[in-house]
Amino acid sequence: MEILEISGVSFGWEEMISNALKKGRKRKPSEDMINTVKRAYEKGLVCLDMRSALEIYKKESDGDGYIVISREGGRCEKLFVGPKAGLLAPAEEVAILLCTVGSRLIDSMRESEKAGDYLLMYYLDVFGVLALAGLSSKAHARVSEIAASKGWGAGPVMQPGSVPGWSVEGQRDLYRLAHGEMIGLTLNDASFLIPHLSESSLTGIGPHYGGEPSVKMCAVCSRRDKCLWRRENVSDE
How far apart are CA 124 and CA 36, in angstroms? Predict the structure, then answer.
C-alpha cells in the first residue's frame, strides 16, 4: 500500500471566480463576491489535509462484468465492475485509488452554515472540489508513473456510480481493498465516502494499453451534464 500526501494547490482564487462566471451567474464579479472567494481560498488552504491511498492488485481473469484480482501470495477475489469490465481486459494489474481532502474543510463548511454565511460555505465547497480534482490528477499520474516504470500504459479511470452498470455500492469494495480507514475515510449507509469531498477509482495497467488512457469515461457517465468535476476542456472522444 502507498499513501500519498499532497500539500498546497495549483489554482488561485481567480479560478474559483472564473468557474462561477462560466455558469452564467454574473457577467462581472461583485466586490462582495471577490472578498468572499478570497476568504474561502485562504481558509481552505489552512483546512486542507489531502491524502490518497493506492493499492495495486494482479488481475487474474475477467468476464461477465467481473474481474478476479489477487495480491502476491494472497487469495483471489471476484470484483464486480459491471458491463464495462471489458475495458479492463488488457490489464495485467489494477490500481485502486482513494482520495480525500480531509474532514477539516468539511467542518469549516458546517461552521459557515451555522453562522449563516452561506456564500462562504458555497465557495469553500468550490475550493474543495478543485483541490480534490488536483489531488486526483496527481494520484493518477502516480499510477501512470508506476505503469511506465514497467514499460506499460494505463487504461481509463473507472468510478463506481459513474460507470454504467456499476453502482455507487461498488465503493464498498474499493474502500476495503485500498484500506480507506488508513486515510481517515468511512462509508455511510448509502455507500458514499465520508468526508464527502472524497472519491474512489479503479484503473487497469498493462503492456497492451497506450501511454495515455485510451478511453475517457465522461461520455458514458450518468452524471455527465451536472457533474462538478467535469472540466470544460475534457474531450469525450
Answer: 10
